[in-house]
Amino acid sequence: MSNTELPALGVEDIIRALDGVCNSKVDDTGSTKPLLECVVSGVLRGAVVMLGGEGSEVRATDEYVALMKKLIANDLVILAIGYPVKVAQEAGLLNPEAKELCGAGLERVCELAQIPPVLPLGGLENIGNVVTIAQALSGDSGLAVHQLPVVGCDAAGVSAQAVELGNTFVGLGVDTFIGIMPYEGSLEDVVAASGLVDAAEAKHTVSADLAELGDAIIADIEQKRNAIAI
User: CA quadruple 19, 22, 24, 27: dihedral positive or negative?
Assistant: First the structure.
């Protein structure tokens, strides 16, 4: 399946769907505020942008799926771009019925908004939509991007494309989690050779164990929530 064939929701589609979780008589619609309200209340813990390019098949599909299921079970909504969209589609995670695999909070959001727990943004050519959403969340919340309980994740392994995307996300202030393939030598040497660069307000976390990476993502989200007292 090529990226051009991947199902894709636009920013407007996502905002329109999330209007379904708010009371239109008292809440602002047509913005990211319904999503923010879900996050502030704790119904949703946060969001994970999962991305991956061509060649991501080096990582076993069941490992991808297990990571996705772990995240949605912990009330983290996933925005998928590129190869993870294909993985989620084949695993049935783009179907509304996948709400049964979610934590109680995300399951409720899926029911009200009639969305799946993994929202497909199409191929990597749509990466700009993530920036748009992050900036909208920042503007509607009054928080800087690095304060938002949002992280990036490329579980495929450290490729040139993963490094480029990872550095882009970190540069925006989004903590980014990279799943590398088993390696020889020290992790520090692997990271140093990869070209991944931390920024002042965000960092990379790298692991060859996707279960461990999932735990780190969940812990990072909770740390961000604690930092802004939500």
Answer: negative
Rounded Cα–Cα distance for residues 211 and 158 (Å)? 17
**Single-letter residue type at 191:** V
* Region at 114 (left for phi over 0; alpha for psi -120 to 50; beta for the rest): left
pLDDT at 218: 98
The CA angle 42-203-78, to the nearest 5 degrees, is 40
Which residues span the domain enclosing 161?
Answer: 3-227
* φ and ψ at residue 72, rounded to 5 degrees: -70, -30
Residue 18 · residue 113 · CB < 8 Å? yes
One-letter amino acid at 129 equals N
Q: Coil, strand or helix: which one is 178?
A: strand
**Structural domains in the chain (count):** 1
pTM to 2 decimal places: 0.90
Count other Cβ atoms within 10 Å, centred on residue 189: 11
- pLDDT of 212 > 50? The answer is yes
Which CATH number belongs to the domain containing residue 86 in this structure?
3.40.50.2030
